[in-house]
Amino acid sequence: MIPAVEGSLRGNHAQRPAGPRGRTRTGAQRGFTLIELMVVIAIISVLSGLLISVNGTAYGASTASVSDQLTSALGLAKLRAISTRRYMRVEVRARTATVWQSTQTGLVAPTAWRFYHTFTVPKGVSVWGASSTVHASGGATVSKDADVDFMIDFKPDGSSTGGTLFVTDSANAHPARVLIYRATGSAYARTEW
């Protein structure tokens, strides 16, 4: 009696219907195609772009979002310096942060720069000041510098000249700071000064 049951079970699973190309399917397909992944990435990019534009224009920018965006721009400069083996410079002003790339490759001192990218600080927020000192702990006293012009260089080994950017809103009610460490070139956004 057992051999008959075993044979009938084997008979049910021996052959499944053929797929569209004549191959037999042995199980459910798993995984994602490259096109599906690209569509998901495109949707996420569009939604994040809308979120950033809504945050910066319709409701006014916040110091937290601007300091996060500056941190991203600094991180981009660091990664680009490492990947291209060229110095990258971020020139920070009260309303903009411009990224420049050296024309020379390697750890040689840069002599010429080429424009790469500009980040514009939305209305209602500005870079209040900058310091070449890394203010890792709060409590810094910062006076307003209307003509902020601060340079941060990222070397091809990932290190930087370092410093601190002080960001605030028009009422100076929500200050934030962006730290750029020298040895690692890492940038971090923090609340308060």
What is the strand and helix layout of this fold?
Layout: H1 2-13, H2 34-58, H3 63-84, E1 88-93, E2 96-102, E3 113-120, E4 125-131, E5 149-154, E6 163-169, E7 176-180, E8 187-191
Antiparallel strand pairs: 1-2, 1-5, 2-3, 4-6, 6-7, 7-8
Provide keyphrases for this structure.
3 helices, 31% helix, alpha+beta, four-stranded antiparallel β-sheet, minor pseudopilin epsh fold, 193 residues, 2 domains, 8 strands
Can you walk me through this structure?
The protein has 193 residues and is of the alpha+beta class. Helices cover 31% and strands 26% of the residues. The protein is built from 3 helices and 8 strands. It has helices at 2-13, 34-58, 63-84; strands spanning 88-93, 96-102, 113-120, 125-131, 149-154, 163-169, 176-180, 187-191. The strands form 2 sheets. It has a 4-stranded antiparallel sheet with strand order 3-2-1-5, with helices on one face. A 4-stranded antiparallel sheet has the order 4-6-7-8, with helices on one face. The longest helix is centred in the first third of the chain and has 25 residues, at 34-58. The termini are far apart.
Structural class of the secondary structure composition? alpha+beta
Q: Helix coverage percent of residues?
A: 25-40%
For the record, the CATH architecture of the largest domain stands as 3-Layer(bab) Sandwich
User: Distance between termini?
Assistant: 83 Å
| Total discrete domains | 2
Q: What's the CATH topology name of the largest domain?
A: minor pseudopilin epsh fold
Strand order across the largest sheet: 3-2-1-5
Average per-residue pLDDT, rounded, comes to 82
Secondary-structure element order, as H and E? HHHEEEEEEEE
Flag low-confidence runs.
Answer: none
Number of strands: 8
Quickly count the helices. 3
Quickly name the level 1 CATH class of the largest domain.
Alpha Beta
CA gyration radius, whole angstroms: 27 Å
Main beta sheet: strand number and arrangement? 4 strands, antiparallel
Report the principal-axis shape: globular
